[in-house]
Amino acid sequence: MTTLNALETPAALIDTQRLQRNIERMQARMDTLGVRFRPHVKTAKCPNVTQAQIAAGARGITVSTLKEAEQFFESGITDILYAVGISIDKLPRALALLEKGCDLKLIVDNIDTARAIGEFGKAHDATFEVWIEIDTDGHRSGIKPDDEALLEIARELQDSGMTMGGIMTHAGSSYDYHTPEALREIAEQERAGAVRAAQRLREAGLPCPVVSVGSTPTALSAEHLDGVTEVRAGVYALFDLVMHNVGVCALDDIALSVLTTVIGHQEEKGWAVVDAGWMAMSRDRGTQKQTHDFGFGQVCTEDGTVLEGYILSGANQEHGILSHVGETDHDIRNRFPIGTRLRILPNHACATGAQHPHYAALTSDESVDIWPRFYGW
Amino acid sequence: MTTLNALETPAALIDTQRLQRNIERMQARMDTLGVRFRPHVKTAKCPNVTQAQIAAGARGITVSTLKEAEQFFESGITDILYAVGISIDKLPRALALLEKGCDLKLIVDNIDTARAIGEFGKAHDATFEVWIEIDTDGHRSGIKPDDEALLEIARELQDSGMTMGGIMTHAGSSYDYHTPEALREIAEQERAGAVRAAQRLREAGLPCPVVSVGSTPTALSAEHLDGVTEVRAGVYALFDLVMHNVGVCALDDIALSVLTTVIGHQEEKGWAVVDAGWMAMSRDRGTQKQTHDFGFGQVCTEDGTVLEGYILSGANQEHGILSHVGETDHDIRNRFPIGTRLRILPNHACATGAQHPHYAALTSDESVDIWPRFYGW
């Protein structure tokens, strides 16, 4: 344990009160909507965060890499959905998890991979549980709810002795909206598409126990989730400026920030130079095309008070350029003298977290616990 | 040691033949120009790469974090320039390096930090060597060559008993140009500004043994470096698509790529989905405003042949979207079947490398050594 003012900069800070509030808000919503909640742990990749999600009522987790599956299985979590279409060369690692007792679920959106999983499973006397990925918004992967391939893939899995666990979808395009109406619509589109796919499977006599949907914006916007059995979301635990622009969190819900120190000025330009560049913030410019462009992040005081109009307007590897968005602040040197410590709210929590070997978790105004996080594949 | 086809994807590949060629090209140029060369090791953060630079004739290194200084000092390198203005709270770490025998140089561009270094040095009976950072292109930090503060800072350092080691500048705006003429001009501007600052110091009776300049584009474009004692550059060792657009390397000079596997398709859109998303490529979109926008990267075959017109046009955390830049390729599924392995050339080698715990270094067409790299501060 250490203290906030003993931290060297740059450092990734988690405000644990905000984290806990965000976790409870989502879980309460899921309880009200009557669905299981399976958080996506790719955002923080941190056992402490995931433990808080499980303690609040989450059942099982979602991962984006087999490394996450292995790490979280080692920390005691068995119900794990690997929510990226598996490449065939990764099947031995998935098998190793299965053989250790991990209740790992794979996803698939094409007959070639379905066939390869079946063949590999049979050859190794293993029964993989597989979910079919459905594309409900044209965002990236998955097959359309009405695609003939849906039944074909399910039959292939059945015939090869694998477990047809259900279907899943992720309306990632929900990040592109910013009004409650549009978010409700995309949430309903995600729900309806998933339920339609499940219905088609069942009508064809194929099993579809799980109907899994989710993204942070749709999870927080759905009016009802009839026919859905579980929801997935990740960034809601930390939130970020992109989610703020989407309209699903306030600035003071954002639990992740980067602590930084002023190391120089260019007075005539109204710049303060800080020691958080893109290596600490990430290169994510997710707010660039949104209603409010926060540059590389929103500047706050060391204790977290938002300094309206001050953003990281530029970033080199280890230099951040802090400036006022409107008029040039010629008093920047006096406002933020050398050595001033600030917090910067990030555009994208998943990307910013990934730049840091650990988090400094603020458990009170001053006390800090170091929470590990991992990276790689 | 392993082999290329045994690597799991995504993986950061270094083509060691290209790396060696890039290193020799730069060193030969520096030898011809008659200056010392001090490579910036922030690009790869990998002892193997730095050893190759030293073996080729580099003298000393440049770092962007104290973590890099510590790691490379442990690996046996003593002459280290920490080329980011130090924040005062980091002085104890710098002192620890000094006391272990590291010939660490700090930089400063303001009187407050100069004073703090002097006071800290005196209080701990330590003599820091300090260089003054000069701003020759308005890019970020540093003081103008003709700024009165230049002499003031140098006198402050002298008076407090620190070593005035010289001046340094980095014309980072050279990344914004793409013609040989413009690059020669910015290189000359960088040189002339640095030499002017050194001259002013000497005329005032202040020492300025080192005159250090550099960026990859200016180092490769300068016509002469009269008055300069050393050059710094980093990305030249690996190169990337941004440097290709600047015009200082060919596509087949780029030594870093990300190995990836096709995991799905959206045929009607002409998409192949691969397992290298932004977590593997970084969120860097550095070519977005350049003459040729490569999206998140240029697609090549597994053996490195450029597939013209195919780029990573989109990226989610662990999904990359591969498509043709012109006409939609409706034959994408047959062209890149499930399981196809590809290499993606990155926009920005520093950012892409930082996403990976290690490099897979191709020592021949097939043999691969694993080279460690580190991250954090």
From TrEMBL, chains A, B:
InterPro entries in the cross-refs: Ala_racemase_N, D-amino_acid_metab_enzyme, D-ser_dehydrat-like_dom, D-ser_dehydrat-like_sf, PLP-binding_barrel
Domain D-serine dehydratase-like residue range list: 255-363
SUPFAM superfamilies (UniProt xref): PLP-binding barrel
Keywords from the named record: Lyase
UniProt record similarity statement: Belongs to the DSD1 family.
Protein name per UniProt: Alanine racemase
Originating species: Kushneria pakistanensis
